[in-house]
Amino acid sequence: MATILIVDDDDAFREGLAETLSDLGHRVLQAASGEAALDALHDGRADCVFLDFRLPGLDGLAVLERLRGDAALKAVPVVMLTAHATSDNTIGAMRLGAFEHLTKPVGRNDIISLLERIFSASQPPAVTEHDEAPFAGEPVSDKPLLLGVSEAMRTVQKQLGRAATTDATVLITGETGTGKEVAAHVLHEASRRRDGPFVAVNCAAIPQDLLESELFGHGKGAFTGAATERAGRIVEADSGTLFLDEIGDMPPAMQAKLLRVLQERNVTPIGTNRVIPVDIRVVAATHRELDAMVAAGEFRQDLLYRLNVIPLHLPPLRERIADVLPLAEHFLANATKSAGRTLHFSVEAQRRLVGYPWPGNVRELKNAIERVCSLAPGPAITDEDLSFLKGPSLSPEWALPADFADLSLTEAVERVERAMIARALALANGNRADAARRLGISRQSLYTRMASLGLS
Q1: 284 to each of 114, 217, 247, how far by Cα in Å?
Q2: Global pTM?
Q3: Which residues of the chain have a pLDDT value below 70?
Q4: Which of 138, 196, 382, 383 is least buried, going by the fewest C-beta atoms within 10 A?
Q5: Which residues pair with 102 in a beta bridge?
Q6: Are residues 309 and 178 located together in one domain of the fold?
Q7: Residue where a domain terminates, one of 125, 152, 179
Q8: Pick from 294, 313, 332: which residue ends a domain?
């Protein structure tokens, strides 16, 4: 039996969760505000805390930050709860040391699985003084944004939040247009290096004979045209983050030199004997399959080991359909604000957006919304306005219902989730294990979601 504190100002939810935890054999404490939660924790020991984001007075993140600053309470596992998950609150919670971040409602089986993970650990993860200091008293950054409400993107956001507390090298993979550079920016902004520079280098866009000078710099007279000394991008990134985009396109000779930088953390500009120490965090990204390139002798295996310390995969948009409409609404709001217009999507337009497979991913979606915002006669964006989105589409039987435009965001996400699960089950011929793999969730999570949605 564990002692678990539930902090939520929603009486019905708090009491319902308390009843579930009591049925599972645990002792339950309750608090309806952040201040009451801190009082309860100082008055008695809790083995775990379920903490809502939105609270009267101190909000959930402020309470979590107070706990992480208290030597007696910093190791208590905290599960953050929210009715509406965003990239900001997910990343903010994870970087402050939350054990998990869940979206309401929470199923019984999910609670059982979560508590098993919490209490099976020999020692709950603690935040060190080194990790705490950069974020003490700071608000959660809201720019840039890695938007997404799907389970797949929630997982990415949690991974980013955890990775932000370290200086380990990160390798971001995913198709073109999935937002790899945005993810790198988010990671930088959430890290202790946020006040340092973010330096991006596209390894595929710079000619091979110029890439070494671009990265390492050169001395005066190092080669024809080198009239002055120049610091390279690696030195420019000192105390910050170096983002190496399309690392899979880096020439083999440069791969060896980059490996040396990662190992020794110093740079020698071309044509000089100076060794310049650098303090950088390296984040690399690629749309290529680096394992296959290693097998083909096109990429150094030792460099891949150095880069792939923390792997982060961004799923294509077609595998997270639940994100399409929220992203489209976000891009539309930005585009109409700059254009001084008021537009909205018709039900038919929503169906086309959800049914289109988006081979260009988020980048294609953003460009499509900017295009239609400029050309649509308005105020309603119709299916005809989006007729330029051609190609194979998802089966209409998995499209959103006709009353989608009248739903709240929570109801809309639930409808999309239901459609995605139904589609995955159909593609898997009813095999739930295969359907769970297609959705990128555990089989138990699929069972729980099917039960909550009334799917058989």
Answers
A1: 32, 20, 6
A2: 0.66
A3: 120-144, 221-222, 224-225, 227, 378, 391-407, 456
A4: 138
A5: 81
A6: yes
A7: 152
A8: 313
